[in-house]
């Protein structure tokens, strides 16, 4: 059968020889592949595509391996967004309670998804205390330190250099257009707002640019190709960048807006008709951003924290009276960290869903001839660890120690073949959990062999099934092997898990639901 471009296909071989299974990073350079590479054999079966290459390497591409992933691609362009006008939020803003956001991964996913797709979200009930805005940013990424510091105070200052630190109205704009790269996220946390006025406003800059493209394609093209000088200067900073107001990706999709009338420097690269055309386009775009139907207005109260995409949304403020008092603290962060956190959260929740389904499905089956099912055994082990007050990682290891028996692997063990289920489980878990979880799982079988040598009476505690599998797994360790095992960094934890393993086979003991362990597991995955 024919295959796609051989270098593309070989470059994307998913085997562990070609890629690190934990990070996905390739172990070879494209130049390492030989000239004239061809597929000498290729066939498909129910598991996917199998290829033997002319350099002797064998590749297996599982069914669906090349299907686009939800998390793949560039979510920064208009095609990954929901473009909106103010009326689209007539039923309410995308928002969540701070405590729920912290405790519920689904709520956090919803908030971060809203920021990435709609450009913003509001967290309610963040403690109205100084520096809490940094704690919010820390839940999904890192603070971008700028010349304003790690955070900045938005309040009236005497003889303010920056217009934001006055009581005047501020038209829709993006922040820091004079930076390259520009901070892609901004957070504003309200500490106090008793002033008359001072309401916040947002405009979807991608929607405004899309309207300009519809109504005046030439003006859109001009603003997308003309570098504009932006600059900010004060006593300690002199920042400058020269980039278009409307940034496009290589395919022509809107990817970034830089719009800040206060920060545009003198445009000297155009003159005559070109300058006339630029200012006509600039004014046309500015007029669109001021259309009332595009501007979403709301009021931030103490404890509200607004998170928004500074490369997409233009933010604004109405004028306010100084007498009432208005104080916000802000900071900058970046979208790549937010997207990474969102992807990891989704991946982890999906992994837990998969585990829970295995416990409920295959886990209800026989457990190596014991009087409990596989799921009951592991849940009992997890409960024993939890009752003993074990650290979270050890509770997780006890709960998950036998997942290597799933997918029929346990039947192979009972049929006389060591399925190395500890290694299988640890390798799968290593994609999500730290070594404090995976290594006791990996070593819980050697720990049984160790205990049978280190504690002569331990063998008598083994169930008949454990005695049977002990022989398949190498039998008791020699004294030298036991000494070497005990010196290992996770030996003590593995022995502890092993003791719970042997005790977790009582059909008379009730078992907790897998859902009870999900918060603990998700915290370990973070």
CATH class of the largest domain: Alpha Beta
CATH superfamily of the largest domain: Clavaminate synthase-like
| Count of the separate structural domains | 3
State the major sheet: 6 strands, mixed
Number of helices: 18
Q: Provide the low-confidence segments as ranges.
A: 408-418
The strand count comes to: 17
What's the average pLDDT?
91
Strand line-up of the largest beta sheet: 4-5-15-8-17-6
Which structural class do you get from the secondary structure elements?
alpha+beta
Please give the radius of gyration in angstroms: 30 Å
Could you please say which CATH topology of the largest domain applies here? Double-stranded beta-helix
Which shape, going by the Cα principal axes?
Answer: globular
N→C terminal distance: 44 Å
CATH architectural category of the largest domain: 4-Layer Sandwich
Tell me the β content: 15-25%
Q: Could you please describe the fold and organization of this structure?
A:
It is a single chain. β2 (48-53) and β3 (58-62) form a beta hairpin. The protein folds into three domains: 6-62, 2-Layer Sandwich (NE0471 N-terminal domain-like); 78-340, 4-Layer Sandwich (Double-stranded beta-helix); 361-525, Orthogonal Bundle (Hypothetical protein af1432), CATH 1.10.3210. 36% of the residues are buried. Helix content is 36%, strand content 17%. With 526 residues, the protein is an alpha+beta fold. Mean pLDDT is 91; it is low at 408-418. The strands form five sheets. The chain has a six-stranded mixed β-sheet with strand order 4-5-15-8-17-6. A four-stranded antiparallel β-sheet has the order 7-16-9-14. It has a three-stranded antiparallel β-sheet with strand order 1-2-3, with no helix packed on it. It has helices spanning 6-11, 98-103, 105-117, 132-138, 205-215, 217-225, 272-289, 335-360, 374-387, 392-400, 409-414, 421-429, 435-442, 444-454, 464-472, 479-486, 491-503, 518-525; strands spanning 39-45, 48-53, 58-62, 95-97, 120-124, 152-154, 170-173, 185-193, 200-204, 228-233, 238-243, 246-248, 254-257, 295-298, 305-309, 313-317, 326-333.
């Amino acid at each position: 059968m024919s295959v796609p471009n051989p270098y593309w296909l070989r470059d994307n071989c998913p085997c562990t020889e070609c890629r690190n299974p934990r990070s996905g990073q390739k172990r070879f350079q494209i130049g390492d592949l030989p000239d004239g590479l061809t597929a000498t054999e290729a066939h498909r079966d129910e598991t996917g595509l199998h290829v033997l290459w002319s350099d002797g390497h064998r590749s297996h591409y599982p069914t669906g391996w090349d299907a686009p992933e939800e998390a793949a691609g560039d979510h920064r362009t208009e095609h990954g967004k929901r473009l909106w006008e103010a009326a689209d939020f007539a039923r309410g803003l995308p928002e969540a309670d701070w405590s729920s956001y912290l405790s519920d991964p689904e709520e956090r996913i919803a908030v971060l998804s809203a920021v990435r797709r709609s450009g913003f979200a509001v967290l309610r009930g963040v403690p109205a205390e100084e520096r809490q805005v940094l704690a919010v940013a820390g839940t999904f990424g890192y603070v971008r330190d700028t010349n304003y510091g790690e955070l900045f105070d938005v309040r009236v200052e005497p003889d303010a250099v920056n217009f934001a630190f006055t009581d005047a109205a501020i038209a829709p704009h993006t922040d820091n257009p004079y930076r390259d790269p520009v901070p892609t996220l901004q957070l504003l946390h309200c500490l106090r707002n008793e002033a008359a006025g001072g309401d916040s406003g947002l405009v979807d800059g991608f929607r405004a640019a899309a309207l300009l493209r519809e109504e005046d394609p030439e003006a859109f093209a001009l603003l997308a190709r003309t570098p504009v000088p932006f600059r900010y200067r004060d006593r300690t900073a002199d920042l400058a960048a020269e980039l278009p107001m409307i940034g496009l990706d290589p395919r022509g999709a809107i990817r970034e807006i830089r719009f800040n009338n206060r920060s545009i420097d003198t445009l000297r690269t155009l003159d005559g008709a070109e300058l006339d055309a630029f200012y006509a386009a600039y004014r046309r775009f500015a007029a669109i951003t001021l259309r009332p139907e595009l501007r979403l207005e709301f009021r931030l109260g103490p404890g509200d924290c607004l998170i928004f995409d500074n490369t997409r949304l233009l933010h604004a403020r109405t004028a306010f009276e100084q007498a009432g008092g208005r104080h916000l603290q802000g900071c900058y962060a970046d979208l790549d960290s937010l997207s990474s956190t969102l992807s990891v959260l989704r991946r982890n929740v999906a992994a837990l869903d998969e585990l829970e389904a295995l416990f409920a499905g295959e886990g209800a089956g026989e457990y190596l001839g014991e009087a409990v099912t596989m799921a009951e055994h592991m849940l009992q082990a997890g409960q024993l660890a939890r009752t003993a007050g074990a650290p979270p990682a050890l509770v997780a290891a006890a709960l998950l120690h036998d997942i290597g028996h799933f997918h029929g692997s346990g039947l192979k063990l009972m049929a006389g073949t060591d399925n190395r289920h500890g290694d299988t489980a640890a390798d799968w878990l290593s994609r999500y959990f730290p070594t404090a979880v995976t290594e006791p799982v990996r070593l819980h079988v050697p720990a049984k062999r160790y205990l049978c040598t280190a504690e002569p009476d331990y063998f008598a505690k083994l169930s008949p099934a454990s005695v049977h599998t002990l022989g398949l797994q190498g039998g008791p360790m020699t004294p030298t092997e036991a000494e070497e095992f005990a010196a290992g960094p996770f030996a003590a934890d593995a022995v502890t898990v092993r003791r719970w393993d042997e005790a977790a086979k009582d059909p008379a003991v009730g078992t907790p639901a897998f859902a009870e362990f999900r918060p603990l597991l998700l915290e370990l995955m973070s």
